[in-house]
Amino acid sequence: MVVLALSFIEAKADWLCTHPQLCQVVADYYKLSNIQAPKLTKAIASNKDPHEVEPTTTELKNIYKARYLITGARELHPWITSILNLRSKKPELKTFSYDVNQDYLKRYPKSHKESLAHFWLYPDIKCDVFNKFQKWIERDKEPIECPYKEEALVLKDIKIEIPTIVSHDAIVPLLLSLGIEAYSIKGSGHHEEPNPKQLKEIHLLLKKHPKVLWIVEKQIHFPNAIEALKRKDDKIIHIDTNRDYPSNKDAPLIELAAFLKQTGL
Questions:
Q1: Taking all residues of the chain, what is their mean pLDDT, rounded to a whole number?
Q2: What is the 3-state secondary structure (H, E, C) of 23-36?
Q3: Is the pLDDT of residue 12 over 60?
Q4: Confidence tier at 99 by pLDDT (50, 70, 90)
Q5: DSSP code, position 161
Q6: CB of 7 within 8 A of CB of 119?
Q7: Is the pLDDT of residue 7 over 60?
Q8: How are beta strands 164-168 and 94-97 bridged, if at all?
Q9: pLDDT at 4
Q10: For residue range 41-98, what is the model confidence (pLDDT) as tens digits?
Q11: Cα(84)–Cα(119) distance, integer angstroms
Q12: Cβ 187 vs Cβ 238: under 8 Å
């Protein structure tokens, strides 16, 4: 029988996750543990990219008061910092907060914490979240193996021979690590918009190459001026890189690999 040292398994307790992807990691853990999972609730109703979301006043209050809070890297939602500071003064409030390890910044070219905070797009970082969560609840037996091997294996199938333009740069470091020439329309900072340098880079790229791949992320606003630059010979994939909770869809990387296989890119 598994015993949780911190008595965190209160099935009737309402656990809040600041992002749906965190709820999914926690749910995956409990499914593999064969333990009754707590009730997992998204703290924020919006399913846009986290960097484009601001919680409502009510949502902020609920996050502050939640008995159990699961939250991601602060770079994903800068507004969480003051809440975490207040919660730290109330020992009865339990918080799991993930921070991106500096080693990942060295592993991925041109990365920064704002991009890597999108942990669900990086199988190794997603496993790090999973492993650190189960360590946080102090299980009394051997840790469960990370369940995201398929997402790591599918990276071998992601090969793109033409330049790639992505809505924002969350996934760009991953593509660069695979040897893919990848560019973003905008960065992944909080409420960041395309800057003149990025737009100029895209124009020069299109001028140089007769065909490119556009990865259009469904939850990211695509400026009309950029939308108009797509050409008939370009390849385009519309993909949900965010994922809601609960979700029965394949992980974004698996969906991307399947598209590339179908199109022969």
A1: 89
A2: HHHHHHHHHHHCCC
A3: no
A4: very high
A5: -
A6: no
A7: no
A8: unpaired
A9: 46
A10: 999 988 888 878 889 999 999 999 999 999 999 999 999 999 999 999 999 999 999 9
A11: 20
A12: no
The answer to whether the CB of 152 falls within 8 A of the CB of 209 is: no
- Give just the sign of the alpha carbon dihedral 138, 139, 140, 144: negative
The secondary structure of 21-87 as a DSSP string is HHHHHHHHHHHHHTSPPPEEEES----S-GGG----HHHHHHHHH-SEEEE--GGG-TTHHHHHHHH
d(CA 158, CA 123): 14
Q: What span, in angstroms and rounded, lies between the C-alpha atoms of 68 and 118?
A: 22
What does the DSSP 8-state code read for residue 236? E
Instruction: Please check whether residue 6 is in contact with residue 67, taking contact to mean a CB–CB distance below 8 angstroms.
Output: no
Look at residue 13 in the predicted model and tell me its pLDDT: 59
Query: How confident is the model at residue 60, as a pLDDT?
Result: 95
User: Two tokens at 1?
Assistant: 């029988």
**Closest to 40 measured CA to CA, from 64, 9, 85, 75:** 9
Q: Are 73 and 119 in contact (CB under 8 A)?
A: yes
Please provide the distance, in angstroms rounded to a whole number, between the alpha carbons at the two ends of the chain: 49
pLDDT for 107-116, tens place per residue?
999 999 999 9
* Cα–Cα distance measured from residue 11 to residue 167, given in angstroms and rounded to the nearest whole number: 39
